[in-house]
Amino acid sequence: MAFAAEHDVPIPYMQKTREYYLALGYGNPYRWAHYVDVPFAPPARPLAASRVALISTAAPYRPDRGDQGPGARYNAAAKFYEVYTDSTATMPDVRISHVGYDRTNYKGDDPRTWFPLIALQDAVKTGRIGALTPRFYGAPTNRSQKVTTQTDAPEILRLVREDAADVAVLVPT
Predict the structure, then answer these.
(1) Of the four listed, 81, 101, 133, 153, which is most buried by Cβ atoms within 10 Å?
(2) pLDDT for the residue 145
(3) Beta 94-95 vs 59-60: how paired, if at all?
(4) Alpha-carbon distance 108 to 167, whole Å?
(5) Is 133 exposed, middle or buried (0-12, 13-18, 19+ CB in 10 A)?
(6) What sign does the CA torsion over 118, 129, 149, 23 have?
């Protein structure tokens, strides 16, 4: 078994994101919300018998909001500020130009890496998971922990419960 090359190390994404936010003109580095105690509820049933919800920070494509294609520069105009839903029956046109990511090493051209709907659909077909909720849920990335915890998260929870999900998968972009 061989060791990885010296340069093959994890990307320090938290530090890179802090630096990126400073470069965008914010007066202080971004501080992630984290808690001392985090509640954990084990799944009530096996995944093969569970209904799974997908929660994503990917934005719906809106052609009037500028370049949102693969490799597009950061595009704040493409942000969304309210929770949205769309069908899990087909692959929606969602994009990630509104978030900060390493555009030097990744062009954002493979949505399967940041929006795993196809993998979840395949998992249903193979019996790995029982079913998907009929819709997925879009979680805004508006950089406000207060709005996220007091407005967006409760709305997503309401929708997930409305769709009778047993398990939720959150995929931030």
Answers:
(1) 133
(2) 84
(3) antiparallel
(4) 27
(5) buried
(6) negative
**What's the burial of 152, exposed, middle or buried (CB within 10 Å: 0-12/13-18/19+)?**
buried
- Collapsing DSSP to helix, strand or coil, 150 comes out as helix
Q: Find out whether 50 and 130 touch, Cβ atoms under 8 Å.
A: yes
Q: Which helix (H) or strand (E) holds 167?
A: strand 167-171
Residue that the structure tokens 């999900």 belong to? 165
Burial pattern 32-44, b for ≥16 Cβ within 10 A else e, equals: eeeeeeeeeeeee
Closest CA to 86 of 127, 130, 30, 133: 133
Q: What is the pLDDT of residue 7?
A: 86
Residue with tokens 């799944």: 43
Is a pLDDT exceeding 80 seen at residue 119?
A: yes
AA letter at 159: L
DSSP 78-135: G---S-EEEESSS---EE-TTS---TTT--S--GGGT-THHHHHHHHHTTSSSEE-SE
Query: In the numeric block, which tokens belong to residue 85?
Result: 């839903």
